[in-house]
Amino acid sequence: MLEIIKRTEGSPSGKEQIDGSKVQIGYNSWGHISIRVVQTAECMPADGPYPREKDTLIVLNAQTSRELISFIKDKVNY
Fold first, then answer.
1. What are phi and psi of 28, to 5 degrees?
2. Could you give phi then psi for residue 50, rounded to 5 degrees?
3. Per-residue model confidence as pLDDT tens digits over 40-65
4. Each residue of 7-23: b (16+ CB within 10 Å) or e?
5. Quick one: how far is CA 61 from the chain centroid?
């Protein structure tokens, strides 16, 4: 599960929860961290139900990725 909180000063916070069967976290060659939440849903086509995946992808920019990695390294004394 992943929770996204959107805040604007003077307004109530908006929260969105993304539930999924698995989460993948990656770091690409451009220095961006990506988070993929995979959800499985039943489809009902004419030939019968079958599982179908949909996903939500969140990609952090390079600066935010560096700051997050630095924060994690600092907290775990890496």
1. -95, 175
2. -150, 155
3. 766 666 666 666 778 888 999 999 99
4. eeeeeeeeeeeeebeee
5. 13
Tokens 């929260």 sit at which residue?
15
What are the beta bridge partners of residue 78? none
The residue behind tokens 């030939």 is: 47
Q: What is the total residue count of the chain? A: 78
Token pair listed for 22: 């698995």
Q: What does the alpha-carbon distance between residue 37 and residue 68 come to, in Å, rounded to a whole number?
A: 19
The whole-model pTM stands at: 0.66
8 Å CB contact between 52 and 62: no
Residue 55 pairs with which residues in a beta bridge? 38
